[in-house]
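LAB NOTEBOOK - FOLDING QUEUE
OPERATOR: T.R.
BATCH SIZE: 2
PURPOSE: Compare the predicted structure-token outputs for two unrelated chains run back to back under identical settings.
PRIORITY: normal
REVIEWER: second-year student, initials M.K.

ITEM 1
FIELD SEQUENCE / FIELD STRUCTURE:
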Amino acid sequence: MPIQQENRLFLGNPGTGKSTLINCLTGRATFTSGLKFGGGLTQFFQKQIYNGVVYMDTPGLADRSIQRQAAEAITAALRESGRYKIFFMVRLKGGRVMSEDLATIEAVLDTVQVNDVYFSVIVNNVQKRQYATLMKKGPEYAKVVTIINSMKYTTPHIAFIPTIPELEEADNAFTTLPSGIVNFIENYAPSVVIPTHSIQRIDFSRFKKTEKELRNQINELETDNAALNRRMGKLKKKHRFFRNLGNFAVDVLAVTAFVVLSPFILIAEHL
């Protein structure tokens, strides 16, 4: 049986760092990246092969000026043949998970008509103090992990990347990534085969409503400990990964994710 093509698909809204991360993984300016006001630099579905792997970059659904175009680009990316590793890029602003990033995850995964679509979340460009706090694996960390999993789709495959000075506000930048994140993407992130016929068109007309619902849900989890604990309880029934989520003396991450995050502790100390 021939080996299936591996597609590494990066999804996320403008400013989440998709293109820059791909450039770092390939060690070259594979895709245009940098700062743009009022939207994202990525306007279409783009792909490049590097070391036998197809890297896919897509525009963000939250960019209202190209929302239909972005939806078509993401649909096209999901209809390529092969095995997928799906990475959703998520931001923290002021330590808060962005509701529009979770809305993008829901909108995309709603189109995949197969059981058990495995995916990963990469929380990118985490500020130094926030990152140091999260790496203590205490209540703040448990809250962020729970909020990321407050949407209808859940995953134990979550990695955090701290701010890297060489990449800040630089055009077409790339640098050598910590071995942990490379390990996560290459070896630990789950993959899934998605038949071409199983992909429906993205219904971006619901995006604004979904984003508002998720924003309200995030606000509740941030301010109501009882609601947060209820959500943790539901997660513990879904994945073994989440069973220690409320026990702050025990590492919150699954073993695979812990392997990824450990090297970042060293990075945070030197940023």
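ITEM 2
FIELD SEQUENCE / FIELD STRUCTURE:
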Amino acid sequence: MPELATLGWDDRLSSLYEPYAGDDVVPGRVSIQHRGAYDVLTELGELRCDVPRRLVHEAEATADLPAVGDWVVVAPRPAEKTGTITRVLPRRTTFSRKTAWQAAEEQVLAANVDVAFLVTSLNEDLNLRRLERYLTLAWESGAQPVIVLTKSDLHPVPEAALAEVGVIAYGVPVHAISSVTGEGLESIRAHLGPGRTAVLLGSSGVGKSTLVNTLAGAELLATQEIRGDGKGRHTTTRRELVELPGGGLVIDTPGIRELQLWIADDGIDEAFEDVTELFSRCRFSDCAHDREPGCAVRAAIADGTLAAERWESYVKLLGEIAHLERKLDRRAAAEARRQWKALGQEARANMRLKGRRE
């Protein structure tokens, strides 16, 4: 049975839990999300927990419901190894994306993480534009992003790849590792420790589950061998919080085919710090960075200080965020109209009822 401190419990969580504490409840941390149920780690052991309708109805959005990494209040049934989640404690950090379908809804991939390992492999998977997208959401989450370049043993010059990624990784550690040779693994362990939580995010087959198993020194997660073309066969089908024997926790996630941005106004500024700091050097404060004289952005592109592809990536991601915000504003306005209409209908119905009584 885990001690809460090893799962990341601290004084902040103790004070958040205090209003709900009692003999009939215990705190716990969500380790796996199933359809309609959750596995929760508690000092009573792992409990399979359901969520009452009250909690579902109180949630303003799906993102308010429990997610892997969340701390929750549980009414346990120890004899059955089950329980009911009665409350989700406020999150310290949240790694979210827009749902892959059309609706503008937030999907929480991991909660209460300290480090976001952004994992990509050096066997043809390296894509700087994709990494910029991951970095934007990682900075927005509140966690510390760390770029992990796996399968360095398959790359002829891993140092060149490190330098290439370093150009876009402002304030972000970048590590090249190999689970085969052990290269770079100590640098990954340095980001972990007792009570610290990391989430692994990346495309399918980049070696996330293999990395977890290597760090744990045991086959905790199912993996498959690398194919002849150097690509892994992805097997992770769910998000799962795993305790490491040496201290620390990691959340493994399924391969992400499409990472759509959620609201990330602060995250994009952090991820593109080299771009945004140019804005203050423009001659005009309202510079559109197009053809205006004295534009520091256009000058940086012209002299090679700023890659045109990086500027285009920034503009594209900024456009996605703006489009999402407009969509959310329209949805909020439509919901407000719906509520006012419902109130009006209720008021008219009450007036008709009152008239009949008189």
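REVIEWER COMMENT (ITEM 2): Residues 291 and 298 are 8 Å apart (CA to CA).
FOLLOW-UP: none requested
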